[in-house]
Amino acid sequence: MTTQIFICAICLAVFMFIQRQLKYFISQQAKKKQVNEVRSRLVTRLLTYLLFFITASIMAVSLGLGYQEVSLFVSSAFAVLGVALFAQWSILSNITAGVLIFFACPYRIGDKIKIVDKDEDMTGIIVEISLFHVIIKRDQGDVMTYPNNLMLQKAVIKVPSSATPTRTSNISASTTQTPMPETIKTVTQETTDTN
Q1: Rounded Cα gap, residues 115 and 6, in angstroms
Q2: Which residues fall within 8 angstroms of residue 127, CB to CB, at 6 or more apart?
Q3: Cβ contact 108:55 at 8 Å
Q4: Residue 74 contacts residue 57 (beta carbons within 8 Å)
Q5: What pLDDT digit, counting tens, does each position of 53-110 carry?
Q6: Looking at the DSSP assignment, which residues form a beta bridge with residue 143?
Q7: Residues with Cβ < 8 Å from 97, sequence gap 6 or more?
Q8: The whole model's pTM is what?
Q9: Phi-psi group of 173: left, alpha or beta (phi > 0 → left; psi -120 to 50 → alpha; rest → beta)
Q10: CA torsion, ordered 13, 17, 19, 24, to nearest 10 deg
Q11: 70 close to 61: Cβ distance less than 8 angstroms
């Protein structure tokens, strides 16, 4: 019995250590990607619940409840969650996409993006990225709420801001300012004369 309690104590200690490391990692990612505090807390809470569920399952097996009983409970819980969330598939996919966008999002709040869509021009500045949707302020001034799962399904182009010149505008500006050499002028005139 003491070894089982010792194993449970080790499981709890490992859970708390991993939870603190996870919280630190998520807060560092949130600072790096300029994500608001509410969203990082939601992602932390979601991943902590998942970690706690895994830890509780390991502790139940170590206390001697039996692998079959614990696996029956876990599979039943996943079945109930699966049936409940299947009816609301969009909610589950938006939460999953929100977590993926949190860790692997190439754009941040304040970036100007364009969502490629044949029906409507969806260009604007990202105001907020939440767990379910992205809020975009369009060029016309209206605010659009766009689901996270569609953000991952459609092509999103990060539009450079107008304050920073692009490479092509620098090239065209430099070619218009420099005079054309005489040899190029004469070759160009000869080819137009022969045609």
Answers
A1: 54
A2: 109, 135, 136, 137, 143
A3: no
A4: yes
A5: 888 888 887 777 776 777 787 788 778 777 766 666 777 788 788 888 777 777 778 8
A6: 137
A7: 147, 148, 149, 151, 152
A8: 0.53
A9: alpha
A10: 160
A11: yes
